[in-house]
Amino acid sequence: MQSANMLLKKIIRSSVLPFVAQHGMKKDLFPLSRTLSLSLCLKQDNSRNPSEKLDLDAWKKVMKSSLREEASETVSESKEVSTLAAAREILEMWRLAGRLVPENISEEQLKTFMECPSKSAKKKYLKFLYLKELYKKNDKRKMDEKRERRLETQEQASETNETKRSSFVCLWSSSMDRAYNWRVAQSMIFGQPLVFDMSYEKDMSIREVANTVRQLVLSEASNRRSVDPFHIHFCNFKEDSLYHKEFIKHYREAWSKLLITVTEQCYTEVFPKGKLIYLTADSPKVMKTFDHNKIYIIGSMVDKSIKTGVSLAHAKRLGLETAALPLEKYLHWNTGAKNLTLDQMMHILLTLKDTGDWKKALEFVPKRKYCGFVSKPVHELEKTLKLINTLKLGRRQEELRKQFAKNYSKKLTQK
């Protein structure tokens, strides 16, 4: 028994007493029965070590102070709860009396309501909260009504689409697809080639490559629906490239069934150089007419940072002829770069191939980039201005010559 008491005393001296001296004694830290048993054990062992005694008076003071603090905290909390409950009762009475009181009010709003200095200020604050809640309800109601209307319109559209999808429409769409495919198949044998240069993957980011493939998909679709389509060639195309992965995402199983020519060879190896013309906006030479015997090359590149001269330098390295569309000749150019998207280029070339009308073809240029068509081509205006200037200069020289002859005759007569 004595050895157990000694062991218990050492544990208390090493762990419990320093903690009590540092933090004070809480009510729920040591129960009363535990403290009494500890004190009895220490009293039994007082005969051995009289110097080591537990100060029970200090312990009682600590416990009493902690009890007082807890009591004061509970009193303050109960007072606050009672005041909040009283304020809520007042608000309920005002609501029953017909005043503008919000239905839901938080504790923070209730505290600010209680802190208002006068009754009129409290009324104004409650009116503000009421109107705020009313606006929120109205907004929510409008959003719900919009959602319901949108769902109704979608359901009606789906019903009408289902009714429209008759056997005749399905037969018509399938027959048109067959006609389009037949035209493209004929263009692969007899049509004019159009080359897309797929060697610009290293000059673009992943996002730009995805945008390029999206534009190429639109170009292929517009070419397939054309009356006289091109024979599209994808040159410098590698199977493990980002272009290939993006095409697989768009076409899936239909990629292997497309009526186009895909090759890893360069276009200079497939076609003679004398027939190739590289279309680039940086070219100093302007394209005047569409030549049906030439093979036009378009760089498959979407350049967000507008790196000028990349396609022109590539064409010069290969020793190819270049050309730019005559945008300034026919359009009052407004703002922005003169680079067009690939699907816009496809629409322009198809229109030129069918009609040869530049004004009709350049209608596919976005309206934000120009402010109207030129009534006369620029070179014709320059010719007329030069003619006017020469005529004016000629008349002026004739007048000077006549004036000199008149003055000279007068001098001779005077002599």
Automatic annotation (TrEMBL):
Q: What is any one GO biological process for this UniProt entry?
A: positive regulation of mitochondrial translation
Q: What is its main location?
A: mitochondrion
Q: Which residues form a coiled coil?
A: 136-163
Assigned GO CC terms: mitochondrion; nucleoplasm
Q: For this UniProt entry, which residues form the secretion signal?
A: none
Q: What is its EC number?
A: 2.1.1.218, 2.1.1.221
Catalyzed reactions: an adenosine in mRNA + S-adenosyl-L-methionine = an N(1)-methyladenosine in mRNA + S-adenosyl-L-homocysteine + H(+); guanosine(9) in tRNA + S-adenosyl-L-methionine = N(1)-methylguanosine(9) in tRNA + S-adenosyl-L-homocysteine + H(+); adenosine(9) in tRNA + S-adenosyl-L-methionine = N(1)-methyladenosine(9) in tRNA + S-adenosyl-L-homocysteine + H(+)
The UniProt keyword set, sorted, is: Coiled coil, Methyltransferase, Mitochondrion, S-adenosyl-L-methionine, Transferase, Transit peptide, tRNA processing
Residue ranges of the SAM-dependent MTase TRM10-type domain? Answer: 180-372
Q: What is this protein called?
A: tRNA methyltransferase 10 homolog C
The gene that this protein is the product of is: Trmt10c
